Amino acid sequence: MRRNVRRVVSLTAVFLLFMTGTALAAVIGLPASGVQVNKDIANGINPKLSGGATDVAGGSLTAGAAEVPWISFEQKAGKAQHIFVRSFAAGKWTTRGQSLNIDPGAEAEAPSIDFAGAGRATPWTAWYEDSDRFKGKTQIFASRFCAAANAVCGAANIWVPEGQDRAAGHLIPSLNIHTSRNAENPSLAGGATVAGADPGPWVAWEEEDGNIAGSGPHDQIFVSKPIKNSSARAVCPPGTRPHGGKSVSFFCWQQVGLDRLAANDSFTNPTDPTLDIDPSRDGVQPDIAFTGPSDTVAWVVWYEKGHTHIGLRNNEQVFAAKIVSKTSADGGFQWQAVGSGTAGLTETLDNSGPKHFGACSASKSNENRCSLNKVAANDAEDPRVAAGTLVQGTPTVPWVVWSEEIGGGIHAIFVAHLVGGDHFELFNGGQPVSNITRDASLPDITFLGNEPVITWNEAFPGGHRRAFMGHFIGGAVNPQFVFDTPHGVPVPGSATPANVANFRPSVSSTCQADPFTTDGSLCPGGGSGFAFLSFTQAGTPRKIFAERQK
Hints:
mainly beta, 41% strand, 2 helices, five-stranded antiparallel beta sheet
């Protein structure tokens, strides 16, 4: 049987392979017959109401045990919208705990899930919701899951919000740098900056901040790391920022990076550690992962859009930055931008240079070299990052996927990875993995062992969309892209491609590249693991499904 393989060849050949090949790989529903994920009336998940955005992660509640799929998702609940989490084990979906909403009447959005704690056995979820306590401004929240009743958790099978109380005794643990500003689109990753330490939940998000050249606040990228207290409701350590009262449970949040922007000003008297290359426009849709030796280096990717007010680019550009130890910086780390043209350079995100926002913002040419875009002048958006290595026994590096315009209003999905520790290079011979005749969007990436797995959406006539999934085989020597779904992700239990809603088809695996798998060399619980994705079907109500590699 032939594989549907896309080698590093010309775009024409790539398209022909896409259209004519036959896939050896495939996907099947979870379970195989396919059931709606957002369906559990007993626990408040009404299948007659629409689901929304999803995120997935492979994990286990027992350290070292075989991992299973976990999914966090948006779910309508009357006039509100809630965040729920379910896991797939023993052939069925099980709801884990209650709705995560801080306010059951709020509209909660954009969940992100990963595992942290001892043995990477504690699920954490981040999301955002509007808050009456903060005059309707949207706030970032994060909760950890307690599987068993104990002194730390209290009850079993519950989600416990974490962070310092930002509402003067009302126990609202917002992560926002400023609770008076809107924040959204968090991304959570479990990781440790010391080899062998228990991973903690780090969160990246976008939040309104600054006022450069009188242009008003723009979305900035921020990151916070966890501080675990020795007892519940303890006062956060001195100097913890953003400031708040006691922790509502066991954790506080500490912002990370050099202060580069003031809340209502620009670079003068900065207090806030934005990652934006150009803080005069919007930095949006961040994603975070841990890579490098022992996976101890946090990386964040995002894209910037809108009109510049400091003479830089106006088109959408994708950026990446990594943490570098800096005792005087918030959280003990500064951020260093790394792009396609930064070989041999150190591009610290600070207040240096003629624009006062670091070397990357000094000029358009500097900004270009700090971006990941294939073509700096083309719009690029929606990046995602994953840790991985193609060669067993070598350290992981960040792998990034994004959507970039290639002409005629068509966007294609590109892949890049870190090379030499200081710059990114396009993978797949610089060619996209998506069909270049259709507009592609919302990619995601994970690693199954030492193979990158990628998902995305493509637009079809009539306003329909299909989700796609594929993976690279052949390692670093002979990389080939294999379509798991050459005609689109099917409706579970059939061969008909699903018409999907305009949400990201999230992907993960049960053998990710992290210290607990020796970077993909040894899957938890034995075996080779599998990759899986979630998608939201278009229609009324919107149904959520999950499928795995066959």
